[in-house]
């Protein structure tokens, strides 16, 4: 284990990336716990205000991201400064993406249906960073044996193939499958060979003159969403908290 850690994490300079990912996830979890306690009226926590203005945690998140980002650029990635900068950057990114939906909608939608986009952004970001961390690229590793070169070459070939399948899945309107397929073998392949979602670039390009294919795509998307919408919402609620119910609309659209 120690040899693997040295060869694949320390020697290629991936320790700052690992610490940034750990800080990112820990900050997101702690932030969600605190905000849920505030929402429930429990614990010693409360909203931060200055001059009557609610200071969202995206504000210190931006500060930490800027400090950590510039600190990482100015520091040696193998030195203490690079490690500290990576942790600060991970913390800032966790705070910023926890309010990704607020930035997207320019409105306080944290506990609304639109706020689920923040959870999705965090999960997808963690998956992509995990892919970078788990990569078996030989760059930065010295004196590789023939067996190590073969192992890493095979891993790189698999990753490259999965990446191509992920691009096809992305063009078919399957963003989540594309991201996780780049990490988990065969997931991207399944997304690449299945029908495209209606309105996706693939569907517009290849289903334009194929009414049967368009109809099958619409039917399959409907069945897929109907089957997986509830489990996906349950997972999102478990991670980020259940959103507030939408207010009932009065007759006449008011």
From TrEMBL:
<protein>
    <recommendedName>
        <fullName>Integral membrane protein</fullName>
    </recommendedName>
</protein>
<feature type="transmembrane region" description="Helical">
    <location>
        <begin position="153"/>
        <end position="171"/>
    </location>
</feature>
<keyword id="KW-1133">Transmembrane helix</keyword>
<feature type="transmembrane region" description="Helical">
    <location>
        <begin position="177"/>
        <end position="196"/>
    </location>
</feature>
<feature type="transmembrane region" description="Helical">
    <location>
        <begin position="55"/>
        <end position="75"/>
    </location>
</feature>
<keyword id="KW-0812">Transmembrane</keyword>
<feature type="transmembrane region" description="Helical">
    <location>
        <begin position="121"/>
        <end position="141"/>
    </location>
</feature>
<keyword id="KW-0472">Membrane</keyword>
<feature type="transmembrane region" description="Helical">
    <location>
        <begin position="82"/>
        <end position="106"/>
    </location>
</feature>
């Amino acid at each position: 284990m120690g040899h693997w850690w040295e060869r694949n994490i320390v020697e290629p300079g991936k320790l700052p990336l690992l610490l940034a990912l750990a800080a990112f996830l820990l900050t997101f979890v702690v932030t969600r716990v605190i905000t849920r306690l505030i929402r429930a009226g429990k614990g010693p926590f409360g909203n931060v205000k200055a001059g009557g203005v609610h200071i969202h945690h995206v504000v210190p998140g931006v500060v930490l991201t800027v400090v950590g980002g510039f600190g990482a650029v100015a520091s040696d990635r193998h030195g203490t400064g690079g490690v500290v900068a990576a942790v600060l950057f991970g913390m800032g990114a966790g705070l910023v993406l926890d309010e990704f939906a607020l930035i997207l909608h320019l409105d306080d939608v944290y506990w609304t249906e639109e706020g689920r986009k923040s959870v999705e952004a965090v999960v997808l970001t963690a998956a992509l960073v995990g892919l970078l961390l788990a990569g078996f690229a030989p760059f930065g590793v010295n004196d590789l044996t023939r067996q190590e070169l073969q192992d890493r070459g095979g891993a790189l070939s698999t990753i490259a193939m999965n990446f191509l399948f992920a691009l096809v899945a992305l063009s078919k309107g399957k963003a989540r499958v594309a991201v996780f397929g780049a990490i988990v073998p065969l997931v991207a392949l399944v997304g690449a060979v299945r029908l495209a979602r209606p309105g996706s670039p693939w569907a517009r390009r290849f289903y334009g003159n194929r009414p049967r294919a368009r109809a099958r795509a619409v039917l399959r998307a409907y069945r897929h969403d109907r089957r997986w919408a509830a489990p996906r919402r349950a997972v999102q609620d478990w991670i980020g908290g259940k959103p507030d119910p939408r207010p009932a609309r009065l007759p006449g659209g008011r």
